[in-house]
Every structure is written in structure tokens, then in C-alpha cells.
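Lecture 7 notes: from sequence to structure.

We start with a single chain of 361 residues. Read the sequence below before looking at the structure.
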Amino acid sequence: MSTKSTGTGSASTGSASTGPTSTEVLVIGGGPIGLAAAIESRRAGREVVVVEPRPAPIDKACGEGLMPGALRGLHELGIDPVGHPLVGISYRDGRRQVDHRFRSGPGRGVRRTTLQQAMADRAEQLGVRMVRAKAESIEYRPGGVAAAGITARWLLACDGLHSPTRRALGLEGAPSTSRPERRFGLRQHFRVPAWTDFVEVHWGSGVEAYVTPVGTDEVGVALLGPPGLDYRAELAGFAELSERLRGAEPLGPVRGAGPLRQRSRRRTAGPVRLVGDASGYVDALTGEGIRVGLAQARAAVATLEQDPADYEREWSRATRSYRVLTSGLVQWASSPVRGAIVPVATTFPRLYGAIVDRLAQ
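Now the structure, written as C-alpha cells:
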């Protein structure tokens, strides 16, 4: 993706050439947060177009556990995806385990494709226009911006972890020169009766396994760890989990994502706002990316008419707990005392529960 300060040429090809040529709000990215931003825009009475090159439903390697706050946020948007109830978080290391039930109500395990399709259906119901195209460049124009052959007053960049928009606009943050090291995620589903209503986090010596039931007979297992993860080999290292999955049918391929830690210098550039993972990401460790992304989408739309600094402030407020708690936990998980995480949580269950509830809000 490239950027231009002025110009009249088309920024993209694809179906945009026969679709809309102008709108109030242009959303780049048709994943859950892009669709949330589009839905929020329509709820605010604004005309909106979403540009996304991939057909729905769009999959992604993620844990798929919606925290209670994320589920409430989706309900506020008129979205109620089918899935499996989640009652809390369970930490375990093969010898110990500590469980905490959410105090703020249930969460839900939902296949990423199910979530994205439910949100796409809701967006269509509200009159969001979808364009199958790729935004190859961003052009600033008088009174707005243009991308994918569409001019708009505002552009909401919701194009994910490795956001081309963030990079093209020079909003990438400087890479960290210190630990924690780069981390990646791998995920696969298995046909097996769900044995738990918790999100189970199995802590290994250098890798975590996140178990999320997404149906009565389907479980997703995501592994987080350093580069070069061998999914099968690492999964075999979790004895309890391996026994649970013995003979289970794999559903689909292993999907990967990463590196997970991404930085942004700021979240605004003229009429452009970075939203969701595009605005910066710490790690998937605490599992609240959707909740935080929904809050960012709401803040971005609510502050469109205001000074860009207002969105920066709202972004900081919406992500503060996530950034602080997740960064701290990732630092701990990447340190020589990683093995103390489950023992400490077991010894101080009230502290563990308070952290879980704070992140689940």
C-alpha cells in the first residue's frame, strides 16, 4: 500500500469500479472490528462502505473465547452469535489448577467464521455497503480521503495485526529492543465432545495452550509461543490435553498468526483512524481483543466530528487495562519465573479472580 497527499487517480481496482464511488465513512477491513465500526457508523446515521478483498466468512487464528464484556458489546449491536457458554477461566500446569467463574455473567465460545458471518449479516441488515476490493493506496483529498476508488470524509482502518494502512501512513511504532521476544499463535479445531465450560489455559515451559469449546462437539485449541512452533509436537507436550484429544478428528488446517506484538506511534492521521488490532496489539494472552476492539470502534465513530486528540484519549482509556495487565503478564510469561504463574494464581485465588474479572468486563 502507498500513500499520496493529492491526486485524482483510482486507488484500487476490483469490484469498487462498479460499486459506490463516495461515502461518509470508509472502513478498510471486513473482520469483526471493521464490521463493528461499520455498524456503529450506521447506528449513528452515517453512510458507510466496507472494503474487504476476502469473501465472508473470514477465518483467523485466534482463541475464539468471547469474554462477558465482548458478548454484551455484541448484543448492544444486535448480534447474538451461536456458540458454547463460557463460565470462566481455568489456569493449569499439569500439577495444579485454579478456576475462576466470571462474576459479570457468561461469555461464549464462538467460531471465528460464525462470529464474522453474524456480524456481516447484521451490517447488511443495517444497509452497510460491502465492496470486494483491496485498498492499494490512500490519498488525502480536500475534505477527506480516498481508497479503493472510493472517496470518503473519514477512513477507519480496521485491517488487522499487520495493517497495511498503519504502515503506509507512517504510524508504525518503533519495535521493542527488549524482551518479551516475538510470539506467534497457531489454532486448530477438533471434533470432540466439549468437556469444559471454561476457557482452559494450559501453561507449558514456553508455550500456552488455550482450549475453547465452540460447540457441544467442537473444541478449538490455540497455542501461543515463540517463532517456529510445531503444533503437533507442542500439543503432545500437554499430557492432560493430549489425552482429551486422543482420537479426535481435526477440523480444518492449522492456522497461524503473528508476530503478535504490534505498535503504533499514534492512532490518527488527518481523517484516518486506526481501530482494533491495526491500532496496536500487545498479545492474545488475556483473550480480550474483541472486547477492546468493540470499544475502540465505538469511540472512533463517536469522535469523528471532534479533534483527533479526542479519539487518542478515548483509545487510551478503552485499552488501558488490557495494555497494562497483558503487558505485565507477557513480561512474566517471558521471564525465568514463568513457572510460578499457576502456583501464584493457586496461592492467591482472590487476586487471580480479580484480574480475570477486570479483563472480562
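DSSP finds ten helices and 19 strands in the chain. Keep this in mind for problem set 3.
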